Amino acid sequence: MGEPADLVLTKVAAERFGLTASRIRRWANQDKITRYEGAPPASGGAPPGMVSLSELHRYLIEAGITPAPTPPVTTVQAPVSTTVQAPDAPAGVAAQVEIERLRLQLEIERHKGTIAALTAERDALRRTVQRIAVHQQESRSDLLQAREELDAVRAELQAERAARRLPFWRRLLPGPVDEA
């Protein structure tokens, strides 16, 4: 199986997507994306790490990471010529159309990632609201039960005071009353 056509140095991919090269290397070490080795430098040393832009972009979308907007591609305008270059013109137009199509496709994928992240956040908020509603219902039921118990104790205390047939002014005193 050959190497992808869109291989770039890890550093270039990091700049392209607004990430750090170390983060991309970490993903490659975790086998989340494929790392390719470039040609060893003439001065010796380890070959540079390379990644596929399309594979990295797919991983970012799957992971719900919104890449930083890439700077617009700048093109150098050739001086206007009075001669018509019919064979080259369609190829240039076709390339520009393809670039625009890919740019729009990338934008669509970014929006899909944003939608997926917002949907996940909405679902998490719904679950939180449901847990709060259950907790609120339980708290209401505990409160009603505590009120019923309090009313029962008050009724029992009132019955006890009435049974003792204490004078009116002694019934107004809180707590137990000595009958001495």
What would a concise description of this structure say?
Helix content is 60%, strand content 5%. The chain has helices at residues 10-17, 21-29, 53-62, 88-164, 168-171; strands at 7-9, 36-37, 49-52.
Structural class: mainly alpha
Total strand segments: 3
Terminal-residue CA separation = 105 Å
Number of domains: 2
Helix share, percent: 55-70%
Give a quick account of the main beta sheet: strands, pairing sense, barrel closure.
3 strands, antiparallel
Instruction: Tell me the strand percentage band.
Output: 5-15%
Mean pLDDT: 80
Query: Total helix count?
Result: 5
Can you tell me the residue ranges where pLDDT is under 50 for at least 5 consecutive residues? 72-87
Description of the structure:
With 180 residues, this protein is mostly helical. It folds into two domains: 59 residues, Orthogonal Bundle (Arc Repressor Mutant, subunit A), CATH 1.10.10; 73 residues. It contains five helices and three strands, in the order E-H-H-E-E-H-H-H. It has a three-stranded antiparallel beta sheet. Helix 1 packs across helix 2. The longest helix is centred in the last third of the chain and has 77 residues. The radius of gyration is 37 Å and the shape is rod-shaped. It starts with 6 loop residues before the first strand and ends in a 9-residue tail after the last helix. About 9% of the residues have low confidence.
